[in-house]
Amino acid sequence: MTVLQPTSARPGRDAITVASVPSGHVYVRHLAPENGPAPRRLPDPDPSDPTRSATQRWWPPVMLDPEWAASADFDVFHLQFGFDAVSPERLSDLVRVLRERGKPLVLTVHDLRNPHHRTRRLHDEQLDVLVPAADALVTLTDGAAGEIRERWGREAQVLPHPHVVDLRTMAVAQDARARRRSWDFRVGLHVKSLRAAMDPMAILPTLVETVGSLPGAVLQVDAHRDVLDDAGDRRDAELASYLRDRQAAGELELRVHDYFSDAELWNYLGSLDVSVLPYRFGTHSGWLEACRDLGTTVVAPTCGYYADQGPVLSYLLDEDRYDAGTLAESIVLAHETRPRLGASIDLRRHQRAHVARAHDLLYRALVQAAG
Q1: List of domains in the chain
Q2: What region, left, alpha or beta, does residue 2 occupy, with left being phi > 0 and alpha being psi -120 to 50 degrees?
Q3: pTM (2 decimals)?
Q4: CB distance 157 to 146 below 8 Å
Q5: Which GO terms describe its molecular function (predicted)?
Q6: Which of 55, 82, 93, 163 is deepest in the core (most CB within 10 A)?
């Protein structure tokens, strides 16, 4: 592929229009430079009325409909995520439409194992359509690129995950962390709405025992109401009973609430010293990146490529194995050393500029090659 030199993205003939699936997600928004020209990304169509922008509502993605792709005005189609429930046959139809129109397809491989699917079969079948068909592949880590090479014989361009938290909030949070009393130590486990990849019951006994043995340490568990309330749509009776019992025994702080807003989520993550990811499978994590933005140490499982994203403390957990000792060791190490594993604002600015430039060059090269 010929890589073009960067040019100004002026309105009119030189501007690249991207059908980005999705467009409004924070990851995609931060693919643009902080300042200056950028490719034009079409707004997400409203699923209830595709003629309107969905702003923050992009699910299910209308752009994945072959009928939409057959007539929409764009230069490049860039699929990030959102195809969880789309059949491989439907994705094949989308690829065919793009080929017939001469529209390049870019695929960013965020997930090699879908964290929302209990088994891997459907996601594998979806990737078997998309990865070979893509005109260009992007992924977030060297480890993921290696797996793509091994499975499909394709080379993916590795571009790091840009910051998740806005830079102003990062600065405030990092300043507050620097002034925090050093003897406080708060370990957080957020079970959210229990996506398929999560297995909090595997690690909770270790966390309760380990955190309870550390001076000044508190284990805070957050969960959504749909998981712990008696009438919750996703109620997990075993987890609810365990957490209520441990709370009554004074062994953890339990906080049950609805979904956090972005501001609430940043405040929550910024209040933690450690955030533990309870995933048995997965690939990459935006949660991990938000923690890095806010200076919160991540204790991540060995499944996926979390440790490739940035510095973390690791413990052994995957679909087949769990080693409680490695989790305890990482929690104790975090307590003893208070490691500074976060990302600086300067680093995030540099990353964002690099990622934005790389995407602009990629789009321009593909449009030139398509003629």
Answers
A1: 17-163+349-370 (3.40.50), 167-342 (3.40.50.2000)
A2: beta
A3: 0.92
A4: no
A5: transferase activity
A6: 163
Please give the mean pLDDT across all residues of the chain: 92
In terms of Cβ atoms closer than 10 Å to its own Cβ (0-12, 13-18, 19+), residue 89 is: exposed
Strands 49-53 and 45-46: antiparallel
Contact call for residues 60 and 47 (beta carbons, < 8 A):
yes
pLDDT of residue 231: 83
pLDDT in tens, 56-86: 455 578 999 999 999 999 999 999 999 999 9
Q: What is the pLDDT of residues 147-160, one digit of tens each?
A: 999 999 999 999 99
Containing H/E element for 211? helix 200-212
In whole angstroms, give the CA distance from residue 135 to residue 319.
32
Contact criterion met (CB below 8 Å) for 9 and 67: no
As a whole number of angstroms, the distance between CA 121 and CA 109 comes to 16
Residue 14: both structure tokens together: 């030189």
Angle at 214 between CA 208 and CA 220, to 5 degrees: 45
CA 231 vs. chain centroid, Å, equals 29
Q: Which residues contact 38 (CB under 8 A, 6 or more apart)?
A: 9, 32, 356, 360
Over residues 164-221, the pLDDT tens digits come to: 999 999 999 999 998 887 678 999 999 988 889 999 999 999 999 999 999 999 999 9
Alpha helical stretches, state H, 19-161:
26-29, 66-69, 88-101, 121-133, 142-152
For the stretch 111-164, pLDDT in tens is 999 999 999 999 999 999 999 999 999 999 999 999 999 999 999 999 999 999
Identify whether the C-beta of residue 173 lies closer than 8 Å to the C-beta of residue 266.
yes
CA pair distance 75, 222, nearest whole angstrom? 43
